């Protein structure tokens, strides 16, 4: 069937050599981007296929860093209409809200500081211990056990074991219960 399609459209089918990913460099690079995007959304690795359409739409509507043109525009001759495009109707409200947020910034920064007993994830990608492409690159969750100098934190596992090595703040992110988060996305 594939051969008939190729013949009908005058396509010459060229096979790449096995175990030489450079042959299909563009495809391999896109597959890497796709896997990175899916890994940020997937909760259980066997559900990755549910997120392909939204991830592809996000990719197709994002402008390429070099060409400054989105793939959607190249295919359809126009940009996709997104919900964010309707914001222009509310510019006055948005400007007022922005000024209000700027006024609240000092208070928000103080609230955003990590505190003892907060629950966080630790970036395990630096340790290269994650294996699967869609597996989480974050360890945890952990509690903040102690706040040290220079943005360093001692972490404690949920079972109570304190990690020996302090972790820099840049390797931490707040923990959110992903089971409840999945329900919000599904709605």
UniProtKB/TrEMBL annotation:
GO terms for molecular function: nucleic acid binding. GO terms for cellular component: nucleus. Coiled coil: none annotated. Residues 1-79 form the Integrase catalytic domain. One of its GO terms (biological process) is DNA integration. InterPro entries: Integrase_cat-core, Retrovirus_Pol_polyprotein, RNaseH-like_sf, RNaseH_sf. This is Integrase catalytic domain-containing protein. It comes from Rhizophagus clarus. The lineage of its organism: Eukaryota, Fungi, Fungi incertae sedis, Mucoromycota, Glomeromycotina.
């Amino acid at each position: 069937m594939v051969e008939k399609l190729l013949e009908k459209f005058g396509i010459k089918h060229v096979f790449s050599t096995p175990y030489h990913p450079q042959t299909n460099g563009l495809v391999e690079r896109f597959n890497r981007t796709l896997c990175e995007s899916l890994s940020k959304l997937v909760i259980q690795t066997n559900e990755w296929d549910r997120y392909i359409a939204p991830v592809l739409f996000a990719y197709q509507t994002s402008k390429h860093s070099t060409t400054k043109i989105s793939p959607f525009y190249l295919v359809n001759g126009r940009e996709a209409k997104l919900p964010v495009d309707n914001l222009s109707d509310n510019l006055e409200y948005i400007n007022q809200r922005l000024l209000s947020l700027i006024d609240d910034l000092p208070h928000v920064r103080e609230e955003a500081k990590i505190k003892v007993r907060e629950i966080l994830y630790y970036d395990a990608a630096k340790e290269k211990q994650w294996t699967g492409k869609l597996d989480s690159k974050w360890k945890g969750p952990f509690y903040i056990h102690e706040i040290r100098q220079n943005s360093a934190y001692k972490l404690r596992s949920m079972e109570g074991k304190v990690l020996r090595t302090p972790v820099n703040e840049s390797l931490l992110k707040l923990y959110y219960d992903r089971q409840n988060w999945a329900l919000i996305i599904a709605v």
